[in-house]
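USER: I would love a firmer grasp of how sequence relates to backbone shape in proteins. This is the protein in question:
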Amino acid sequence: MSAQPTGIDCVIPSRLAVGDSFSVKLKLLGPVREIPARAQFNTRKPALHGPFNLNAERRIQYVDDSLPAWAGRLRVEGEGGLDGPREIVFDGDNQGVFPGDTRPIRSVEGFRWREPGIHFLRLEDPESGLMAWSNPVCVTADAPALRLVWGDPHWQTFFSDGVRCPEELHAFARDEAFLDFGAISDHMEAVTDRQWEYFQAVSNDFNEPGRYVTLHGQEWTHHNPAFGAPGHRNLYFRGAGAPALRSTDPDCNTLAKLWGKLDAWGRPAIAIPHHSANARMGVDWELGWQAAYETAVEMYSIWGSSEKSVAAGNTRPIRHCGGEREGRHVLEALRRGYRLGFVGGGDVHDGRPGRALHRFSYPGNAQDHYEQGLTAAWVPALTREAVFDAFRDRQTYATTQSRIYLEAPCTIEKGMATMALCTASEEGIAEVALVTAYGEQTLELPAGEDRVVAQPVRFALPTAQDFAYLRVMTQRGNMAWSSPIWAS
């Protein structure tokens, strides 16, 4: 008899129209287990027993949390006039993500909703009694102008200081973390020009509009005091190719030189600061802001949140590499007038983009790491270009590895703003805070159903530089941060 599942991952699209056909993506979870680093040249890929599953120097071990095998049935329920199978069968054979894979991972088609609203799926294993909910979906009466897609734009490979190779990482992101988009952003200082050509080829090979799309990404890794220690920047590019930019190259070892390189490239690019609040590798906001490229900041990753300090109430502060430093938080950048959207990422080194397990794979630093972050992007279609544009145009929000639905279109008239807040989570909404240039306040939420909160939020934005954003917390402590809006 196969082991009983301990959990169920269930992912559905976050925005649909009535009648849209969609798939339910499922993975049944079990105890975390180490996957040895061994393989033959003819091992089928992407295989769990790949040759790049161990980073001995940093003591990172690739681990897996899905059941190695399982056969059974899941009951499916859903309000809102759900059409589709009422039972999903795992037969032990027709499952998994590569030939010979017996793990209970499946994508099941043929579902539709007949009624608009915020809906959830409920799944139950009748054998064990295990029950789980999907993420929320907003179903609209008409086809929405924008869809909501999910990704992790920040991973490392075994070429620098992670585990697993580029093909394995993209396959995991697409087929096991159920992401819509992803990007390797390896430390370019460890990557040769020829290896960068290979990275781009893999990214282009995996780019499949409508299913899973990729960005070309790289991490400009710079905390060298000799050259101003400006902090790291993750670079992303809109097209099918990109230059290799390294902080160790004499012509690219300062921010000014980096901006000059991007100017010379002459094609769309963005530069996203990350773990900005860190004392050692964070961002010195006093060095200025490059509005042409720095359109977003990584609010959250496995390092924690850079939003604000512990003293100001941050419940997930950065603890690694000396902890946090005052003056480097995201709120400090916004108060300086820097206009930055918010993204969430993994900074994943454990080979599991979109569903990192660093506390198991990297035990020596387990106390310093959190669950990873995700980025939600509003796009007209799932394409590489549309995802890039969402990052550039601040049409994103950040979360803590939870697909919290968060929408808050805003109108501003005579210094007064009104957000039409709609947020939902299968975990229940515990708190919503409005954060502005002049402080923050916790909103009074309506009584009753807590999985969905929909209400207007009114507040003042008296000057052109005033900003505002929302921070949502679920009953399990997961968070989402909407990208800021400004008075003008």
Observations:
- The helical segments are 166-175, 193-206, 255-265, 330-335, 358-361, 384-392.
- The chain has a mean pLDDT of 95.
- The radius of gyration is 22 Å.
